[in-house]
Amino acid sequence: MHSPPQCSSVCLSHGPTRHGGRQFPRRAGNTPSECAVGIDNIHRVMSEDAGESLPDDTPHSWSYSRGAAEEIHVFQRALQSATRAPQGVIENWETLDESASGFRLRRSGPGARLALHQLIALRPHGARRFILADVRWAETQGEAALVAGVRALPGLAQPCRLRSVSTDPAQTGQWTAAFLLPVAPGLPASLVLPAGRWGPGRTLEMRCGDESRTLVITDAIERCRDYDRTRFIEI
Questions:
Q1: CATH number of domain containing 32
Q2: C-alpha angle 109/25/141, rounded to 5°?
Q3: Of 152, 178, 203, which residue sits at a domain end?
Q4: pLDDT at 23
Q5: 51 in Cβ contact with 45 (< 8 Å)
Q6: CA–CA separation, 125 vs 144, rounded Å?
Q7: Rounded alpha-carbon distances, angstroms, from residue 63 to 6, 72, 125
Q8: Distance between CA 45 and CA 20 in Å, rounded?
């Protein structure tokens, strides 16, 4: 049985690793973009963008969740450069170049700290929706600027909520922020959920908007710093 790829947890690299050239051709173009960091924060930003809200029994958090707050950069003015949605925090970045599968981004001022293989949400200039992406490399420039290369996850992510299912209602879990990556040509649907939260064989209730489903996690596609991407079957 093959284990899913294990993602690195090293915080910053000295730049992109090259093995005989880039993984994909890039199209240059400096344009503004928006980013969100931290799974809870990303979920709030994307839910607000879609006009959705969390159920009453979802644990509340600050604009940055506890986990994301621990990832705030050492710069004391981190939040001063961010645009505040009612509950989510969106940072202003710049897209330096892009291709069908990745982006090279730059943040000129302070903001949330990034780690390799951390989940972010990105809305490029002109795009209507955020996409999920994985941080592949990052390097600092000067005293405050940060440049990062990110790989887009397949499909347009839909924010959803998950909780464990039990025959004893008292044991039913609280709702947890997650994302559904819908079926793309040649690819099965998958879930993006907090790292280590649930393993194979767990039965969960998933709610996307007003739709509710029961599913079982089958196996992990990849395990990364703050998220797992998993396959599932509906029951």
A1: 2.40.10
A2: 20
A3: 152
A4: 38
A5: no
A6: 23
A7: 29, 12, 23
A8: 38
pLDDT in tens, 155-211: 899 999 999 987 777 667 889 999 999 877 777 899 999 999 999 999 999 999 889
- Of 29, 55, 41, which Cα lies nearest the Cα of 209? 55
Assign residue 138 a region (left: φ > 0; alpha: ψ between -120 and 50; beta: otherwise). Answer: beta
- The two tokens of residue 109 are 């001022």
Query: 174 and 41 in contact (C-beta within 8 Å)?
Result: no
pLDDT of residue 6: 63
Tokens 């405050």 — which residue?
A: 144
Rounded CA-CA distance 226/39 in Å is 8
CB 136, CB 116: distance < 8 Å: yes
Provide the whole-model pTM.
Answer: 0.76
Reading the block at residue 187, the tokens are 């690819």
Q: Is the dihedral of CA 11, 198, 85, 28 positive or negative?
A: positive
Query: How many distinct structural domains can be found in the chain?
Result: 2
Q: What residues does 34 pair with on adjacent strands? A: 92, 123
Backbone angles phi, psi at 234, to 5 degrees: -90, 145
194 in the same domain as 95: no
Distance of CA 36 to the CA centre of its chain: 8
- Structure-block tokens of residue 27: 């199209």
Radius of gyration of the chain, Cα coordinates, nearest whole angstrom: 18
